[in-house]
Amino acid sequence: MQNGRQILTQQQKLFLSQKMIQSLNLMTLPFAELRERILEETEKNPALEIISDPVVSGEIPRHPPFIPESSNMTGKTSAVTAAEKSEANRNFLEKALSLRETLQDHLMKGLAETTVGTEVEQVAALVIQNLDSNGFHISPPETLSTDGNQEILEKAIKAVQKLDPIGCATSDFRESLAVQAEIYASFSKNPEEQRQYNLLSRILREHFSCFEKGRTEVFIRNLKKESGIQISLEEGKSLLELLRTLTPFPGRAFPSGQTLGDFTGDGAQYIVPDIFVKKEGEEFSIRINDEEIPVIGISPFFMKLGKDSGQGKQTRDFARESLQEARWFMNSLKKRNLTVMKVARVIVLFQKDFFNKGPKFLHPMKLKDVADETGLHEATVSRAASGKYLQCEWGIFELRYFFSGKAGTPSSLNKDGGTSKQSAKEIIREIIENSPGKPTDREIMELLSQKGINIARRTVAKYRNELSIGSSFDR
After folding, report:
1. I need a surface site. Which of 136, 156, 320, 375 has the fewest CB within 10 A?
2. What is the pLDDT of residues 299-335, one digit of tens each?
3. What digits encode the pLDDT tens for the residues 12-67?
């Protein structure tokens, strides 16, 4: 029998206070949600008051986002005619609007360009509307109103699966990967590549657990044990490399369709930028978007109430607590804006070539680079960049866009930190658009190598797929 003795132990634990959690949440809020959060806090806390509100006063400028008066690819100043500026504004708006295209919007456009027949097209439209943000079925497709015609339903699903992004209209990521492999096999004209994609699809469907560890030797051993399929080390590496070019959640490349603003007044949705970057001479001006943000302050009445000895203790305590909460909220708001500004300044500093010359000149950059430069923790940098957008003359970009790893291996032609993945993608897009013929992935790989960008052919295929550009056979 054990004696019931009390034992005193000392443990060190970290607890996040409610205020700390709210402060972290405030840091992650994009501009579009910040206004609502401020209004919510002023309604909840009587010690906070709105000093001015551009929305209520009608002071918000209702015009397109700025287009620099003078700028070109080299960063030198040049005169811009009214017609050119009008065209630039139109292109800019189209770019901003296109970023808000939802998965359903994109698939419906692709469906309209197919020739599957009216009956299949109508069912395919139902299938598209039944997809979640990952591109997977929300309800079993059999439950859709298809008059019980299984053949038409199957044709409709297959039609949607082949639309860009391929692999939607599936039940989960496993089926999506298998479908993508099958579709790439049908696209390829290379018999060996067809065989590899078909084998990959079969393994994904029937022996998915073989991929669990991710190491080639383990994958080969598990595959032989489970299925009796015996492959060489080289083929195992090739299959795993093919797998890495597929996208497990194809729908995530598109926004979920939430409202972020109304630009044109007719319901068109667009991204509201948090940061504006504008070239002025040889330098860049950076500012926080505060055009629709209310200016808040401490209520003089509550300040007086907290000091009034003639009031009861309960009243004074309530006033003091409200004042403390109000000051904390205002300081957290100020800290949020300063942190976002710090991150934006370092991005502009690191990515000066991008802002001067365009997306092809984006350099590799990590969260740690910004953290080291600002003195912030990487997690803080991540929160500050999350969901925030930056507007410059090249378009509107999520802050996370500027954090891009290196593409390929180092090259003697590329000694200034290497080429970022995003930059490599833009160069691939330019090669495909400007080539007189239809360059294959291998030809693109060789052209990139001449530019000092050494990446594998399969990586070219992966980047091309991420750009929603078909193979040379499809183009």
Report:
1. 375
2. 888 888 877 777 788 888 888 888 988 998 998 888 8
3. 444 444 555 556 667 777 777 788 888 888 888 888 888 888 766 555 444 344 33
Q: Which of 33, 41, 56, 59 is nearest to 298 (CA)?
A: 41
CB 469 within 8 A of CB 432: yes
Burial of 209 (0-12, 13-18, 19+ CB in 10 A): exposed
pLDDT of residue 19: 57
The pLDDT confidence band at residue 158, using thresholds 50, 70 and 90, is very high
Q: What's the one-letter identity of residue 251? A: G
Residue 138 φ/ψ, nearest 5 degrees = -80, -55
State whether the Cα torsion 261-264-269-272 is positive or negative: negative
Segment among 179-183, 257-261, 272-276, 345-349 with least mean pLDDT: 257-261
pLDDT at 20: 55
DSSP for residue 203: H
Q: Give the number of C-alpha atoms closer than 13 A to the C-alpha of residue 341, restricted to the C-beta side.
A: 12
Residue 40 to residues 19, 45, 49, Cα–Cα distance (Å)? 16, 9, 11
What span, in angstroms and rounded, lies between the C-alpha atoms of 134 and 253? Answer: 9
Instruction: Please report which residue ranges of 166-232 form alpha helices under DSSP H.
Output: 173-187, 191-206, 216-227
In 272-312, where does DSSP find H-type helix? 300-307
Q: Alpha-carbon distance 434 to 465, whole Å? A: 18
CB contact at 8 A, 256 and 135: no
The arithmetic mean of pLDDT across residues 140-165, rounded, is 84
Q: Would you list the DSSP string of 305-374?
A: HHH-TTS-HHHHHHHHHHHHHHHHHHHHHHHHHHHHHHHHHHHHHHTHHHHHH-GGGPPP--HHHHHHHH
Q: How many angstroms separate the CA atoms of 379 and 96, rounded?
A: 28
SS3 434: helix
Helix (H) or strand (E) holding 395: strand 395-398
